[in-house]
Structure formats: structure tokens, C-alpha cells
Amino acid sequence: MITIGQLAGYIGVSTKTIRVYHDKGLLPEPGRDASGYRRYGANDAIDLIKIRTLAEAGVPLARIRALRSATGEEFQQALREIDDDLAARIRRLRKTQGRLRRLAAGQLTPLPPEVGVHLENLAGWGFTPRWVDLQRDLWILVFATHPDRAGALFQDQAEMLAEPELRRLFLDYDHAHDLDADDPRIDGLARRIVEATRERYGSGELPQMGAATEIPALIQSTVNAASPAWQRLDTLIRARLDA
């Protein structure tokens, strides 16, 4: 028979914790001996190990108390459920740890890997850092707000940029950022974009330029806000596509 202090030291908890377990009805409180000390035996140590293990697994004390009256089969089933919950928590924590490590490495973009590769390609193709940053921010918005459709839209743009002639249009669009809104080169660029768009999509819905959907509107409104020249370019493109 051992004292509460010896039991606490052996199991690795505080005496205060043991007293809380007594108050919560988790661990029966033994009577006192002739010297006035409460004495604990092997069964108390085993019970305390069970309680501590379940508590450390995140099981609420109320459920631990209820498990004291469970049958052997019920207890084993409860342990399997607790183990499944713990495994799920571990997976979530590992994902969080991965995000934390990417944050520490400066990798802040919550985008699919293929989008990250695409953004790196943009820089290699001669797009300005401003354009690459804008594309990153736009894809973050699109994947966050329309995850069910973002992948298809991204694939469409990636395929376009894989074609040198279409990529030239995007590069010219990028470099038009600093032009005056009334620069005649904007009219010529708008005409070329409309021709390429009609050639790619025909007379059907134009997912990139003319479709009345939320995603193109989200993208284009953000692009237009960045440059008066881009805003006029969009106005010309829409007018010619509608015509």
C-alpha cells in the first residue's frame, strides 16, 4: 500500500490531479489508515493509468467516468473509436505541421502543386513579377471560392499558355499594363485577343473572356482594377465579342 504522493510519482501525475479524479468520481477514494493517511494499492495504480491514458487521448472526463461501468466488449469498442479519433487528429496535426513548415520556408500559397509549377513557368516565359503575383492571387481566390470549377478553368488557361502564339497574347496583355488608356496599341491587342478567342471557342460559351459566370467576373474585375489600360482593353474585348 502506498500514499497518494507515491502513487502520483509512480504514474506521473500530480496529487492535485488524483484528487480531481476523486471529486469527479473517476477514481474511488480509499479509506484512511490508523495514521490518517489514505493508502492505494495495485488496482488503484492500474485504474489511474487507464484514466490518465484516456485523458491524454482527449477523452472527456465525463466519458471516462461512464466507461468505468462499461462491459469488457463495450470498453474495447470505445477504445477502438477513441483510437480512430486520435488517428484522425494526428493526420490533421501532420497537415498543420506541413503548412507550418511551408510557412517557415516562405511557401505561403495555398494552391495545388500544378499551379505552383505554372507560376514558375510564367516567370521563365518572360512575364513580369507583377503579372505572376496577380495570377497567384487570382488563383487563390478562384480555388477558395469555386473549388469545384477552378481545376477545369486552370487547365484551360494552362493549355492556352502552352501554345506560343496564345502565350504571346498573354505577354502583350501583361506588358500593356503601363500604357495610357487611349494608346492605339490597346485597340490592336483587343482585336487580336478577340480573333484568338473566337478561333479557340467558336460561337459557344467563352469561359475566359465573355461568359456570364462568377469566376471570369471575379478574375476580370481584379485585373481591371490594376490598370486603366487593362480596363479599357477588357471593355473593347467585351464589346467586340458581343458584336
From TrEMBL:
Q: Which Pfam families match?
A: MerR
What is this protein called in UniProt? MerR family transcriptional regulator
Q: Which UniProt keywords apply?
A: DNA-binding
**UniProt-listed InterPro entries:** DNA-bd_dom_put_sf, MerR-type_HTH_dom, MerR_fam
HTH merR-type domain: from which residue to which, for each copy? 1-70
The superkingdom of the source organism is Bacteria
**Record-linked PANTHER family:** HTH MERR-TYPE DOMAIN-CONTAINING PROTEIN, REDOX-CYCLING DRUG-SENSING TRANSCRIPTIONAL ACTIVATOR SOXR
The residues that cross the membrane are none
